[in-house]
Each structure stands twice: as C-alpha cells, then as structure tokens.
Design a protein that fits this description.
Blueprint (H helix, E strand, L loop, with lengths): L2 H10 L3 E5 L1 H10 L6 E4 L3 H5 L2 H7 L3 E4 L6 E4 L3 E3 L4 E5 L3 H7 L4 E7 L3 E2 L3 H20 L4 H4 L4 H4 L12 E5 L8 E6 L6
Parallel strand pairs: 1-10, 2-3, 2-4, 4-7, 5-8, 7-10
Antiparallel strand pairs: 5-6, 6-9
The structure holds iron/sulfur cluster (SF4).
Length: 192
C-alpha cells in the first residue's frame, strides 16, 4: 500500500494530511500543542501506543477522556479507504461527535493497518472482522464477535447484543466544514 497516494487522496478531499514515521507523529502533535489548554481523547489505542497520550499528559495539558469540549481532539480511524474516506464506528458516539463538531482542531493518527484497498464495503468488513472483535475482547464485551464471526457477514445488520459497540457508523467524505482536521498517516501498524 502506497501511503503517499492515500495521502494525496486525503489532500484532494480537503484534509491537511501527511505521511509520518511514529516519531514524527509524536513531534507533529507536540507542535500543535502551543496555546492548547486541553486535549480530548476518545479511547484510541493508536494514540496510546504511539505514546502521544502520555506525552500530552506529561506536558501538563489537561487530557479530557471521552469529552468533546476541547481545544484539540485526538483519535484514529477504524478504516480508511485508499481514495481517502474515513470510517468510524462508535458505541456511545462521543468519539464520532467530537470528530464532527466541537473541538477547535481534530487530528487523526492512522496506521497502515487501517487502510483498506477498496470502498466503503471493504471498510465496513474490516471494522466487523478486525476492529470490533479486538475492541470487544479488550473491553470484555459479551458479543458474538468476541468469540466468533460477527453476524453482519450473514445478515448485514450485526448483532442484537446489549454489549454491542458498533451502534453508530460515520463515513467522512470530506472534513466537516467547521472543524479543521489534520490526518497523520503513520508508517506502521497501530491500534485496531
Ligand atoms: S455487530 Fe455485534 S458482533 Fe458484530 S462487530 Fe458489532 S458488536 Fe461485534
């Protein structure tokens, strides 16, 4: 997968985007912290694995977990199509809400493993096959995907479990009009 071409697709759609190494991802977020009073974090494993959540906390800036009212919101994507569409699922909706409206700036950190070679169908398949099962196991959710295949592959609807984590699906064709959005494509595999 050529990260450069995915990056170019994101730029064509109106995102500020660049390809970075893991170290450069940390430096890029650090450079955006000037004047920032608080940073929102929606539970992203990618942001955690890159050490960015710790870096922000150690800098003395308040980290607002699962909050949308912040100067800068950090998150990843569950899937990114090669033509630059971001797809995210949510249980409570806080992460999707913050990525649409509220924060003064949104920054995505997206590893290679999130890129799907295809369109929205492939993105949704990745989410139900990889992202949700791993997140359900991590969170101790009792869903079909935590022990086997998600019913979405047979019924196109998913499960009826009270523990279901994919209740909201957001597809971003372009960055939202009032939310400056940066995408850092990280050259490595991070998160689910
Ligand atoms: S619909 Fe249910 S089983 Fe399927 S991925 Fe979502 S939580 Fe898992």
């Amino acid at each position: 997968m050529e990260l450069k071409s995915v990056c170019e697709a994101l730029v064509r759609r109106g995102y500020e985007a660049k390809v970075v190494s893991a170290a450069e991802a940390v430096e890029s977020v650090a450079a955006l912290l000037t004047g920032v009073q608080n940073v929102g974090w929606g539970g992203s494993e990618t942001v955690k694995e890159l050490g960015i959540r710790d870096m922000v906390a150690k800098s003395g800036i308040e980290v607002r977990d699962h909050r949308t009212d912040c100067d800068l919101f950090l998150l990843s994507a569950n899937a990114l199509t090669t033509d630059g569409r971001i797809v995210n699922i949510d249980g409570s909706g806080n992460r999707v809400a913050a990525s649409v409206y509220g924060p003064k700036r949104v920054v995505y950190l997206i590893g290679r493993n999130k890129i799907v070679d295809g369109g929205i169908d492939e993105a949704l398949a990745r989410i139900h096959r990889e992202a949700c099962p791993l997140n359900c196991r991590r969170l101790g959710k009792k869903t079909p995907c935590s022990v086997g295949e998600c019913p979405w592959f047979k019924n196109g609807q998913g499960c009826d479990s009270p523990d279901r984590i994919c209740k909201v699906t957001a597809i971003f064709d372009r960055p939202p009009s009032r939310t400056p959005t940066t995408v850092l494509l990280v050259d490595g595999d991070f998160g689910y």
